[in-house]
Amino acid sequence: MTKTSLSFSGFDGPTAVEPWTTIPQLAFEHTALLYSMYAIAALHLSRLEPANAEAIDAYRNYLGLALQEHRKDVSELTKANSDAACMASSLIRIYAFAILQERPLSPYTPPTQFLYMTSGTLMVFHEAWNSIGDDESSVAVKLVKNMTIWSEGETSFEDSWMAPLHESNGLGLSHLLRRNVTEHPPERWDFEIQEAYQLTINYIGSVQIAIAAGEAGEHVLRRLIVFPVLIPKRFIDLVAEEQPRALVVLAHYFALIARFKHVWYIGDGGRSEVRGIQTALSAEWMGMMSWPLSATAEEST
């Protein structure tokens, strides 16, 4: 597990590595974390050894056990189990990214299981923060503060995690909100839907701004890993409904993820999702798909 943890993005110093390398010791006291650790290690081994049927069976079995025990921990979150719950949640999120590469994409259906599985992490961290936010020795606190989106000097969980959702970040993607008012039937639209799209676009824009500013690749990937955690649930619902605009916005996210195909738990998942979304959209949406398609074409070469 120690070797697997070092393959996760963003380890730019001893402080960043520490939360992950303490998992094995913490797992001896918390079953959900133990099973999560086994699942992600077995999954990593299966990618290194594709013919290893035992590893494939192991990661699937351990994931089921991990999710079962994790639900119990989350329903009874205390200071005593908050660290383990947060770490288990983070491992499950990495697992969700990794298995994206395995899902069938023809005919294309949105990755709703992936989005819903990873979106619950915020609630776990938020509740844990209320219990352990004042404890600098907490593994979960160290993990949160090592994330790129945490600003130096921040003390508010909400303020720091919500910063990438600021409207100014989405200015470069405002064209994704343009509507065809003569469309028949008209696109379903209300304040909640517009806000869901706006906030999601803002987050994607914040990543593009970080890339343009020359931010280190491992830091950019950390921003992308957190994306499903911070976007509005309403946007995920729109993706689940296969709303064309939601799929277009999601394609912009996956086009950014495609930059990291060299990372074992990302692989070709980003590019494949963009191509799958392309097949699910009618011609009228292809103009908004131009950037994701061109960006992933470059990544495939």
Structural overview:
With 301 residues, this protein is an all-alpha fold. The chain is 64% helix and 0% strand. The protein has 16 helices and no strands. It is globular, with a radius of gyration of 19 Å. The two termini are 32 Å apart. Mean pLDDT is 85; it is low at 9-17.
Mean pLDDT value:
85
Residue ranges: pLDDT <50 for 5 or more in a row? 9-17
Sheet with most strands: none
The structure class reads mainly alpha
Separation of the first and last Cα atoms:
32 Å
Run of helices and strands: HHHHHHHHHHHHHHHH
Entry keywords:
301 residues, single chain, 16 helices, mainly alpha
Summarize the structure.
By secondary structure, this protein is mostly helical. The chain is 64% helix and 0% strand.
Write the layout of secondary structure elements.
Layout: H1 2-5, H2 14-21, H3 23-27, H4 31-48, H5 53-75, H6 79-99, H7 112-119, H8 121-132, H9 139-145, H10 157-162, H11 191-212, H12 217-230, H13 233-240, H14 244-257, H15 269-280, H16 290-299
